[in-house]
Write a structure and sequence with these properties.
The structure is a homodimer of 538-residue chains.
Chain A (H helix, E strand, L loop, with lengths): L11 H11 L4 E5 L5 E5 H17 L7 E5 L4 H12 L3 E4 L6 H11 L3 E4 L4 H6 L9 E4 L15 E2 H6 L15 E7 L7 E6 H12 L11 E4 L6 H4 L1 H8 L2 E4 L6 H10 L4 E4 L1 H14 L8 E4 L6 H9 L3 E7 L6 E5 L10 H8 L4 E2 L4 E5 L14 E6 L22 E9 L5 E6 L4 E3 L2 E3 L1 H9 L4 E11 L3 E10 L7 H9 L10 E4 L13 H8 L5
Parallel strand pairs in A: 1-11, 3-4, 3-5, 4-8, 5-6, 6-7, 10-11, 10-12, 12-13, 13-14, 24-25
Antiparallel strand pairs in A: 1-2, 8-9, 14-15, 15-16, 17-18, 18-19, 19-20, 21-22, 23-24
Helix pairs in contact in A: 1-2, 1-3, 1-9, 2-3, 7-9, 10-11
Amino acid sequence: MFGLMNDAPLLIADTLVHAARAHADQEIVTQTVEGPIHRYTWSDCHHRAQQLARALADLGLGFGDRVATIAWNTHRHLETYFATSGSGLVCHTINPRLHPEQVAYIVGHAEDRAILVDLTMLPLVQALAGKLPSVRHVVVMTDRAHMPDGVPAEFLCYEDLLAAQPADYDWPRFDERTASSLCYTSGTTGNPKGVLYSHRSTVLHSFAIALPGAFALGERVSLLPVVPMFHVNAWGTPYAAAITGTRLVMPGPRLDGDSLFKLMDSDGVTKSAGVPTVWLGLLQAMKMAGRAPAALEQVVIGGSAASRTMIEAFEGFGVDVLHAWGMTETSPLGTACMLKPGREADDKDARYATLVKQGRTVFGVQSKIVDPDGAALPHDGKAHGEVKVRGPWIASGYYRQPDDSAFDADGWFATADVATIDPDGYMQIVDRTKDLIKSGGEWISSIDLENAAVAHADIAQAAVIGIPDERWGERPLLIAVAAEGADPTREAVLVHLADHVAKWWLPEEVIFVDQLPLGATGKVQKTKLREQYARPAG
Amino acid sequence: MFGLMNDAPLLIADTLVHAARAHADQEIVTQTVEGPIHRYTWSDCHHRAQQLARALADLGLGFGDRVATIAWNTHRHLETYFATSGSGLVCHTINPRLHPEQVAYIVGHAEDRAILVDLTMLPLVQALAGKLPSVRHVVVMTDRAHMPDGVPAEFLCYEDLLAAQPADYDWPRFDERTASSLCYTSGTTGNPKGVLYSHRSTVLHSFAIALPGAFALGERVSLLPVVPMFHVNAWGTPYAAAITGTRLVMPGPRLDGDSLFKLMDSDGVTKSAGVPTVWLGLLQAMKMAGRAPAALEQVVIGGSAASRTMIEAFEGFGVDVLHAWGMTETSPLGTACMLKPGREADDKDARYATLVKQGRTVFGVQSKIVDPDGAALPHDGKAHGEVKVRGPWIASGYYRQPDDSAFDADGWFATADVATIDPDGYMQIVDRTKDLIKSGGEWISSIDLENAAVAHADIAQAAVIGIPDERWGERPLLIAVAAEGADPTREAVLVHLADHVAKWWLPEEVIFVDQLPLGATGKVQKTKLREQYARPAG
């Protein structure tokens, strides 16, 4: 027997309509690509999204068509999110840091019909001329005055498109399982794989991340998403901001520490979200200023693990850290790390031992850790195995790549992250399945070694890979970047590590480099390090 | 094209499973019916709900069967919520304050197969012996030691049932639209009508009420739901508490001001939710103590309007008020009243003019006000019309009463509440459609008059009804209860009112009574007042 409740579907357009009604005058601030700060409201955003939806329909784009965006976090990108998904199109966000050939592959694989592109990324699209056969329209996300010389005549101007349309539009109603957005994740092997979100998954995920136990969003929060809108929909923050009336401050292309500090400081940002790499820059700016941005209360750290050093640095400036975990396939929120009530009384080491964990699952996500045979492992904080998750905002497959072995018949997605789960439910990632180092039949966690290394004051960044070893199979190699002005020795680092890890975990060698190779999402590319340093023994 | 996301249904069992995993040791405290304080955890609750689900299955109850509860807010009632809905049964909560004949009608209409009943309400069930033909089992919600003498031998003991079962159970998976619970709402005319909630509507509503812009629930909140579990599922708080790991403090049968104060004070309650009638009692206890309960931060006021007097009284003790609106048909949350950012700077009168409003819609609920022809009225804060709402947790019909005129083909539910909506989206209920007074062709709001009356220091409670008038059609009559120790005069009250309302709104007469007649949900029964005072003119 079914309940007698309204069968209204969960649709992305409704999140914006809600914001425009209940939070009409809430501000959205953008550091534009063109230079000036732009300010308007959720009501304005709704009107312009309606104009854009009409314009896209006039271009002949129809239900289910994929529309690519290659753009920074700006008000225009935000409008594009809602205009595309809201009108039944699929918003396909593309990471501009990918190799142009990968971009061409992705556009072709998705069969994108149109591309909306920021001024700064226009050269990328122009360089791909003739290599994007599915694309019928390119829209440059700027106004007429900023359209560059020499742009092909057929390229359209975003503001011209909007100006030609009335600011009303009836958002269509359709099945909530309808595809809403598409994001390719670059695996270390093979071509990028597309994760195809639905309206349902997006709205449910918005609820989950907005809860007090996660990002705690609401109209008294000024949120600056540093995490790009081309990376897992900026962790879903645009939609969650709409359902909660959160004030948004969009950083545009300026993601360096000084620019972020300045924007946060001048514009009352209370909360921000991004990856550790970005926070290194912000912390540097905070150290220079001797303080945190004026209103900043909390940063959400995800994408890769937050070290104790980083958490302590933020706390030293009076800024809380929310450590979270997820991936493109998980929308992304899977776990968030908050101290359980009562744990505030823990001593310093115990407290940080908790905070460096990725945390407990949020409602909606089920998780387990399994051994190589798929058997569930105990939640004792010791046993480690591959993390599997499932729930309404976890992917069930990749776009046009059926039968990927990461997805099983029971709905579990195998993350390739290796973790422990303690009796209180706190998950801690110890490695990626492929990054674990197997030495003498035992596992060494590259992440644990990296965290121990960056806890040394003279080391800014560290990466550990396994190198082939005749006797042990593999042995760890530490590749480190010295802190500014510091000149650490191999010996000093090993002495430091010996205080933190088992003796047999100690790296065979320590190599100092000027910088680590970073991938398109800002993570260290261990594949490149392996190519360079992990040549077969002998 | 559909997204490629896991199709996991939204199920109530998962809310409890989540609480038991991520918030295993979070406490649930109960003032038991038997007397002592009972303490256990969400993990314990999960184990016992599993035992109860097994026991109910052993009694022959099957998917879709209705199981009645007649019980206070206790840990056993909480277990029953999850055990019934979680296993595919329908949890039918019955208001024990209804007339026994109405209870018999409701049980028969729902065809309840079993009744779980608290010790204190056992006499009600025994008095209905022979009048409940659908009922095969009666379970007394206590342990063997407390089973009263003279109870029929076939009545079962709750704790005996649980003790016979192992504490594991595989919660079944089914369509999220499956009926989960049933609550009858007593209209002023005709028989009570059943609202049949679904798993989907319940889980979505839980997300909505837990957001920072609504009840803001989380593991650092100790919530005491005064609103009974037999009244719109205690406003959905048990499920929302489970998804957020909120600590629950259950008041059992002791809802008087002194008992509530004592329980809140001794058990660290930070937040509570209930109707104004209850808060009058608590405020009285706070006045006696000269302070608020130690940790109390906020009360949620719903069910009927919160007056400025009441809001000021709580704020005077340092307790925030969240004014909210909803009804049985809306799960119930429709709107919540929070000051928009920036409005804290409003002067005192402007601030309270906002706070006495029912607030803005939460995400998921659409609302409009319409004239008698159904045409939408402007959101100008002046035009008033009947409130219509729709969304995923709004009813689409009544159980086994098809084609009720309150529901239209577009999914709108006509609430019979009359309201204005201002340009910022704040809704203010001005009356029930049937309680508006039409005088000389113009409307007088009985609620506005009542609020103005209780703002007089010598008046504790007030009700205004229309009395027939030959010249004007109707004229208002004020029926008031004097504050303790006060002896207000008719003239003083009219002089006071003249400062607050238009002259033609002034009541024809003021009648002082010792108490107002209250219905089963604690609201003033205007029908009774009309029977007594509003005899036809002439």
